[in-house]
Amino acid sequence: MNGYVIKTELYKIFSKKYLYAVAAFFVVFLSLITAQDLDSIGTRYSLARFHDVVIQAAKADDFVPKAKALEEKVNSGGKGIAAFSEDMKELLPESIVSYTEQYRGETRHGVSVADILNETMIDEIRYYRERLDDRRAETERLQNELASLESKGETGSFAYQMAEREYQLYVTAPQIEPDLSRWDEFVDLNHTYLSLDIAFLVILGLCGIYSDEYANRTQSEMLTSRDGRAGVFGGKLIAGFIYTAVVTAFFQLVGFGVYAVIFKLPGEDIPLASLPQFYMSPYHFSARSYYLFQIAGSFLGAFALAAVVMCLSALAKNALFPFFLSGGFFVAGFVLKKLVALGAGESTLLTFPAELSIFMTMSWQELVARYRVTDLFGNPVSTVWVNLCVTVLVMIAALLLCFRFYTKKQVKN
Amino acid sequence: MKLTLSHVTKAFGQKYAVEDFSAEFERGVYGLLGPNGAGKTTLMRMMVDILTPSSGRIRLDGVDISELGAAYRDKLGYMPQEIGVYRNFTARRFLKYLSALKGIPSGEADGTIVSLLELVGLKDVADKKLGGFSGGMLRRIGIVQALLNDPKILILDEPTAGLDPQERIRFRNIVSEISGDRIVLLSTHIVTDVEFIAGKVILMREGRLLRMDTTEDLLRSVEGMVWSVTVPRREADRLKEKYDVSNIAQRADGLALRIVSAEKPLGDARPEQPTLEDVFLHYFGREAV
């Protein structure tokens, strides 16, 4: 592999000034959107110190009914939470109240910060308890389902194996904790902003990687050079992947940096299922390990997308065709994910386009938030693994086709 | 070294761009002549292995060029009809990149690029962006890139198109200088380019090989068929209708016509020494005009 070829291919990609403009736009957009949370209660007043207090308070079986009753009183009273300051203080542990009362004099939109914090803490304890109860109920449901299937003698069935594995995951999962960290924000980064930003920059940067040679009419000179076929393919592949890695790393760093500035660092690591959007997840990820898994998925998905874009570019006579087709391919996964409700259960032909999409590889949320399995010759396999394998296969297939399309290219006009 | 084309055909749908073309090339300069649409570019693209023949074979020393692959391309220099460049690259950077693609070590490439740029008179603009180059300068860059790897087979598609007379002379001299032990095939519309430097001329029409011969033999083939005659304008119009006229010049006593015809066009017509333009006109008739 000739280093000068790789260097030149990198120069061709990185010399496109509009890529920097688009990247700068995305950075500004992410910063502005996130900055709106700069003054939010959750950002300004850290409640992480009450982690253990919330766990203890949630153990009381009467907390949730009392909290619901108070909520009804507040909703029907028409006077807002300020009128129920004493009721809220009564419901909360002393340590929380003594902390929040120091903000009694501060107001936001005419409401005492102490009241807002008290309401926040009541919700936190209540929802934590409800999440615990829901997980317990799901575990019991699975236990009953297994007993029912056993009584019918269906222990060899796919349904039994699926329920059994999910049940085992639930009973061996670490106990979920209150979500007083900012991990919920950090794990949302790849699900909302970053995957789309990265995909757009990858597509924009690579859609012309081969088709521009056609448009520039340089491909005849390349294809008739000794190393102008496999050598160019290798050079473009390495340069394309370096560009993809740089784009992905850049946005991951920017995303983390912006969030760290706005929300501060995410705090102590907790089980992933402690985060509201993952509370029914049977998987044993911690929030930090899941975040790292997302970053790894972001790189893998970006590489697979880069391979698809390069493959389409090798087929095309201008950059618009690969831009729109690969853009459509990526966005389809994003849109289908929204259209297909992914609860727990078996993945089907209807849900595969969303579940096995590159977007899913770069965000994971719908696949990890519930137990999604694929029937692989009668064996239940987590769809997370199937997605990983499919993404790798798509990448390899795209690269093989790209090699074929480019090296056997016919120059007709 | 022998490059052999055996019954090479290229069809695009129902249309034959090249049909049953057979020829052998050994070292020397070959001029490929034919009117527009004769199939010259398609033939050259097949010879440089960027277009696969529909049928027939192209072999170098008995081995199919598609099997030789990189080994064939290592011997090849190709200048396409339309030179492709990166407009934001300097000439040196562009040529360095193509040198790398041709497998030329970096240190060696630097020297080769400088000497070739000097050969085509572009040494002073080596570090200028290609976006600012004129059409003629870009064609010279095209010639340089084709020569970078000191090719044994040099295929040039319309290399002199867009060059001014001075540049064309320079180009002809370059080709003559480098033609030594190579196969050089060049296509052109400008017959005089071929006349001066080609050892053999290939005439091609409608995808088919019409004739392949030495320049001398081709000239001999129209000997006694070239006439000059000076006639009044009205008579000139009649002659133009009836015969192939390769040249018309104003004279004090009328129009001087140069006519290619097997029969003597007028009683006072004088026989002339044929040129390759007359040959071209003889074989391609009004298509050539």
The number of distinct β-strands of chain B equals 14
The low-confidence parts of chain B are: none
Separation, N- and C-terminal Cα atoms of chain B: 37 Å
Order of helices and strands of chain B: EEEHEEHHEHHHEHEHEEHEHEEEH
Helix and strand content put the structural class of chain B at alpha/beta
Helix content of chain A: 55-70%
What is Rg of chain B?
A: 21 Å
- CA(first)-CA(last) distance of chain A: 30 Å
CATH C-level category of the largest domain in chain B: Alpha Beta
Principal-axes shape call of chain A: flat
Figure out the total of helices of chain A. 19
**Largest interface, C-beta closer than 8 angstroms, per-chain residues:** A-B, 28 and 31 residues
Lateral arrangement of strands in the main beta sheet of chain A: 3-4-5
CATH architecture of the largest domain in chain B: 3-Layer(aba) Sandwich
What fraction of the residues of chain A are assigned to beta strands by DSSP?
under 5%
According to CATH, the homologous superfamily of the largest domain in chain B is P-loop containing nucleotide triphosphate hydrolases
- Number of DSSP helices of chain B? 11
E-strand count of chain A: 5
**Main β-sheet of chain A: number of strands, strand sense, barrel status?**
3 strands, mixed
Strand content of chain B: 25-35%
Q: Could you give the order of strands across the largest sheet of chain B?
A: 6-7-8-3-9-10
Describe it.
The complex is a heterodimer of chains A (413) and B (289). Chain A is mainly alpha-helical. Helix content of chain A is 69%, strand content 4%. Chain A has 19 helices and five strands. In chain A, strands 3-4-5 form a three-stranded mixed β-sheet. Chain B is of the alpha/beta class. Chain B is 35% helix and 29% strand. Chain B has helices spanning 40-47, 65-68, 70-74, 91-101, 106-119, 135-147, 165-178, 191-197, 215-221, 233-242, 276-284, and strands at residues 3-12, 15-25, 28-33, 55-60, 63-64, 76-79, 153-157, 183-187, 200-205, 208-214, 226-231, 244-251, 254-260, 270-271. In chain B, strands 6-7-8-3-9-10 form a six-stranded mixed β-sheet, sandwiched between helices. Chain B has a four-stranded antiparallel β-sheet with strand order 2-1-4-5. Chain B has a four-stranded antiparallel β-sheet with strand order 12-13-11-14. Chain B is globular, with a radius of gyration of 21 Å. The model of chain B has no long low-confidence stretch (mean pLDDT 90). The interface between A and B is medium-sized, with 28 and 31 residues.
